Amino acid sequence: MDHPMITQTERTGYPNMIAQPEHNGTDFFGDEVLDGDEIVEYDGELILKDNLERYLVEEFGFKFKTA
């Protein structure tokens, strides 16, 4: 007797395969860029908005501080 999840998968296929967001490449740091992600373009490079502070620190030496 198979596990119920195996039986369901055999009957209906793998769940959420269609609901996966579209892959749009990778950013400067190699992180996956998906449809709907906020990105920044600079000098031909794509940077995820979440990685922007890291990019500015590592590439330009920016220092973020609290006043």
Short description, anyone?
With 67 residues, the chain is of the alpha+beta class. Helices cover 27% and strands 22% of the residues. β3 (39-42) and β4 (45-48) form a beta hairpin.
Description:
This protein has 67 residues and is α+β, with helices and mostly antiparallel strands. The protein has a single domain (21-67), classed as YqaI domain (Herpes Virus-1, 2-Layer Sandwich). Helices cover 27% and strands 22% of the residues. The chain has helices spanning 4-12, 52-60, and strands at residues 23-26, 32-34, 39-42, 45-48. The strands form two sheets. The protein has a two-stranded antiparallel ribbon. The mean pLDDT is 89.
Q: Helicity level, as a percent range? A: 25-40%
**Main sheet properties:** 2 strands, antiparallel
Q: Give the CATH architecture.
A: 2-Layer Sandwich
CATH superfamily, by name, is YqaI domain
What is the global morphology?
elongated
Q: Regions with pLDDT < 50 over 5+ consecutive residues? A: none
Beta content: 15-25%
Decide which structural class fits the backbone.
alpha+beta
- Which fold does the CATH topology refer to? Herpes Virus-1
Kindly report the oligomeric state of this protein.
single chain
Total strand segments: 4
The separation of the N and C termini measures 65 Å
The top-level CATH class is Alpha Beta
Counted up, domains total 1
Strand order of the largest sheet: 1-2
Q: Helix and strand string, N-terminal first?
A: HEEEEH
| Radius of gyration of CA atoms, rounded to a whole number | 20 Å
Mean pLDDT: 89
How many helices? The count is 2
